[in-house]
Amino acid sequence: MDILIIGLTALLGLYMAWNIGANDVANSMADAVGSRSISIRNAVIAAGICEFAGAVLVGAQVTNTVRKGIVDPAMLAAIPGISPQDAAVILVIGMSAALLSAAFWLNLSTIYGMPVSTTHSIVGAVAGFGVVAAGWQAVNWSKMGQIVASWFISPLAGGIMAFLIFNYISKSILGKEQPARAAIRHMPYIVFLMTAVVLLATIYKGLKHVIKNIHWLTDSRALALSLGASLVAAVVSYFLIRAKLQGLEEESLGKQLEAVERVFVPLVIISSCSVAFAHGANDVANSVGPLAAIVHVLKTGTIDMKVPVPLWVLALGGMGIVLGLATYGYRVMMTVGTKITEITPSRGVAADIAATATVLACTRLSLPVSTTHTLVGAILGIGLARGLGGINRRIVTSIFGSWLFTVPAAALMSMFFFMVGKALFFETLHTLIAG
Amino acid sequence: MKSLIGDLFGKSPFGPIVEHSKKVHECVELLWPLLEALIQEDYDTIHRLHSKMSRLEHEADLIKHDIRSFISQRYFLPVDRSDLVNFLARQEKIADLAEDFAVVLTLRRTTVHVEIQDLFLCYLNQVFQVSGTLLTAAVEFKNLAETAFGGAEARSILKLIENLGEEEWKTDKMSRKLSRAIYSLEGREDILNILFYEKMVIMLGSIANQAENAGDYLRVMIEKR
């Protein structure tokens, strides 16, 4: 019978992952699609591959935070007068309630076009169930505070970084007398920065997780390896860019700028893919974190401090995200692709590098951050650097509003689902697990 | 289907501003056939051209209303909102003045004295130069948004605005010369005609003035920050 419960909760996880794919994924490719650097069809394919890879290769680390960091399962077991079986049942019901309410809230917001974060939803939902199940002290408030802080820090960090990168691009390349010649000189640095950020993320964490026991791949070696590879990429890019841009010095300023923007096109595609990768890494936890907890409880009958996340669970989350992208996110992508004409490849690259670096740094610190909001922060940063013609202030306000609103909303919903679920299914689940 | 990132990007006002500049310059260009028709005392053509002018001016107005909605408080803009509004107001004034000029020509059957005909055409031509330079600057200004309002592009447009000032100064000089020629006609020309000449001179001069003012607002937008 365990398999039935696992199957049902897996469906819940899939529903959540589908929502993430439908709601969020298009945003990660927004810069590439918006600057018309890649066709919508190809963007969907690329995003699907990168999200899946990110989810499966890097996803595990954050999974721990959402599942255990917010509500410590040990606190459930420590409730006075509760048997281990009771605690296990409560955890199963609670995590299911959290998944359901987060997914439901997300689905609702997607329909009404409200800009909410998947991460905010699940964190709020888990905390909500924790409060009802085991009281205020069950929720790790310092961890919660850390996460709340990261919502403000990540867009800010993304914004500042994007501001600096775009300022560098505009001062050293776009604003020069001969942008083509300046690009030949300065583009390799940007390629270096971008490759370093992308590679550090992938090698450092991805490979380590997949191929276990690579003892030689220490932190410093990973750093050296990615920096070395970035150096090679920068040198190669120098020759490629020189071949493309040399001899344009006599052309008009406008023509040169056009040619320079074309050089940014492959970069914005690669960097957007890495945003998708980072998004998959960070956000898959939102769907499979609770699922992994349930699976472990059902398999062992006990609540442990640390549980391994099975690869199939990660793969399920990744699949759900891709499914959501293919069935619903596709339409969001179309809107993004036809609406954003403001953004140029050079601006897209600046936003993407900043967002990837921020999201991956936060993932490394085990803080679940919202990719969407980091990217929004990055785009605002470029706007402040006088890089964009106009930014809709109303949307910015509604994003800030949703930060404050989503957590309590998801928490309340999750409390409700938990109490209903406990009243209806507690006995059944109890006999199933105990028996 | 709503999309968060898609909605985040407000509309850029810089494209429509160029549209507005073009429309305003079209109004100014219409002054040439108007003045020629006046010299040839072809009053039917003047009436026809006046209605065309009035239509163009209205079209410029529509574009301006459209732009006003872009620069509501709803959007963050890379330039100061009030500078943009002021720039637009100056440009609009140019179209208004051009239309007023056409109206003056329709008011009465004025003839242009043969001694001042060439001077008048020369003067109008100089006003053209000013308006044309402003248009070029506006087009360049749009490109400037591509380079984040800095660097080589900014320097080239500041140079253009400097030229604008120079040309306006030349216009002033020509206006004085033309005025002297007009008043030297005293006694030989109908006094009402002289009054109308003066009206025309002042209007054309104001067009050049407003163009220079508009250019100044462009300069302020570039140099701020």
From TrEMBL, chain A:
One of its GO terms (cellular component) is membrane. The keyword Transmembrane helix applies. It holds the Pfam family PHO4. It is a multi-pass membrane protein. GO terms for biological process: phosphate ion transmembrane transport. It is found in: Membrane. Keywords: Membrane, Phosphate transport, Transmembrane, Transmembrane helix, Transport. InterPro entries: Phos_transporter (IPR001204). The chain crosses the membrane at residues 87-108, 120-139, 151-169, 189-207, 222-241, 262-281, 309-328, 403-425. GO terms for molecular function: phosphate transmembrane transporter activity. Belongs to the inorganic phosphate transporter (PiT) (TC 2.A.20) family. PANTHER family: PHOSPHATE TRANSPORTER (PTHR11101:SF80). This is Phosphate transporter.
TrEMBL record, chain B:
Pfam families: PhoU_div. This is TIGR00153 family protein. Belongs to the UPF0111 family. PANTHER family: UPF0111 PROTEIN HI_1603. It comes from Desulfolithobacter dissulfuricans. InterPro entries: DUF47 (IPR002727), PhoU-like_sf (IPR038078), Put_Phosphate_transp_reg (IPR018445). Gene3D superfamilies: Phosphate transport system protein phou homolog 2, domain 2.
